Amino acid sequence: MTARKVIIASISDPVSINEIKLHLRIDDSTEDSYLVDLIKAATEKIEDFLQRSLITKTVEVYFSGFQNYMELPLPTLQVVNSIKYYDCDGVLQTLDPSNYVVNDLEDPSYIYKASSGSYPSTKDVHNAVIINFDCGYGDESKVPLRIKQAIMLVVGYLYQNREDHAGKIPVQAENLVFDYRMMGL
Questions:
Q1: CA 177, CA 152: separation in Å to the nearest integer?
Q2: Cα 146 to Cα 55: distance, rounded to the nearest angstrom
Q3: Which of 33, 120, 148, 152 could, after both became Cys, cross-link 23 (CB 3.0–4.6 A)?
Q4: Which CATH architecture has domain 13-54+140-180?
């Protein structure tokens, strides 16, 4: 697996506090901050299980050098912002977009060299190539309903079982989202 880092985190959650309160049949606001924490924990758990980003975030992925194709984790790819690399002198450069092609028709997406382009030589260091991109479905309105429902099931499970959580997501949640899961990343 290539190294990656979230540069700009998602600014919202796929499920709102009101949706969770409706799902759990909670009428008061006594536990709102706890429920917000559960939403975040459940979202992280579902994202880890799916190997996907749900709400837009900016990520960097690192390679030791240019490769025939470079796979971008955390579908769905929205845009490649830049490809930077350390040249042989160790100076950070930006690769001209005419030198590469982005295949965003598949999940996961990947980048490969354009037929008329070329990849420059890089310094022989770890993480010499840095790809910065935005990924996720967009905002919460674009997250598939089955994924949102799975998050609500995980929140419900965590809420009801505060002291007894084995680290697995409920089977019903897993069944809802299994078709969205990225395998082998």
A1: 12
A2: 15
A3: 152
A4: Orthogonal Bundle (1.10)
